[in-house]
Amino acid sequence: MVTSKFPLGRFSHLSLAQKLMYLGILITLFWLFIALFAPILQGIGFLQDPTDLLSNIPGESPSLRHWFGTNVRGYDVFSRTLLGSQAALKVVFLATFLSMAIGVPLGLVSGYLGGKVDKILLFFMDTIYTIPGLLLSVTLAFILGRGILNVAIAVSIAYIPQYYRIVRNHTTSVKNELFIEAAKAMGATPTRVLSRYLFLNVIQSVPVVFTLNAADAILVLGGLGFLGLGLPEEVPEWGHDLKEALPDLSTGIWWTTLFPGMAMTSMVVGLSFIGEGISELFNPTLRNKR
């Protein structure tokens, strides 16, 4: 009885997916903390200026002065690795919110109205969906140019069809329910039906797609940065730092690739764990099976 009251005892009754979800939340909160409080950490001297290369020895191995060492240009790897979370979170959440803000309303309207509107939207979304997401993002990033907003738009386009298809399919199955027919019989306008009666019933799967898309967007951003199509060079970004560090491996400088790569991997894994846990919470059949 004593152990059952201990807070950690509650975790023994959780499934593996739920335990991983809490671990993912901790990882994501860590990077959110770093991104939000990085200016304060830099002000108190805990983080060095990520653009300062004149006061450091190029290619210095990890030490007490430079925990993650320096790269061949003299940048402090520790500060650039932690401050890289700012660019990642800005682009990722902006891209996923843009895709969700476009895909969800289009899915609601398409599924509810049907007819020619549904066919036209479905054709365009299927066309976008057939194009590989990374290839589409690379093409748009090349056209739009560098910058937080431009990269976010380039990344978000590939995720719009996913929100559209999920919301449209749910709307199509729910719009014929009795409570929808009753609302229309009472004089509810299509806008009111969509916003009040349909939206909350079809939005349940969106958080799962949101977290998984956020994890994928980090990899896409890293790929764009590696190709030189991401953010400006002076902005700390994991993909760009990995691109510059790739030639260092042949000279024995391993720390310039290890730490940015671990940071990117940890954020992707954390968001993926959250998505798996949320998927189980919203799927009673999967939860009961496990």
Produce a short descriptive summary.
With 290 residues, the chain is mainly α. Helices cover 70% and strands 0% of the residues.
Low-confidence stretches: 1-6
Radius of gyration: 23 Å
CATH topology, which one?
A: MetI-like fold
Instruction: Give the helix proportion (percent range).
Output: over 70%
CATH homologous superfamily annotation = MetI-like
Largest sheet: none
Q: Count up the domains.
A: 1
CATH architecture descriptor text: Orthogonal Bundle
CATH class: Mainly Alpha
Mean pLDDT score: 83
Helix run count: 13
Strand content: under 5%
Principal-axes shape call: elongated
What is the strand tally? 0
Query: H/E order of the elements?
Result: HHHHHHHHHHHHH
Structural class: mainly alpha
End-to-end gap: 26 Å
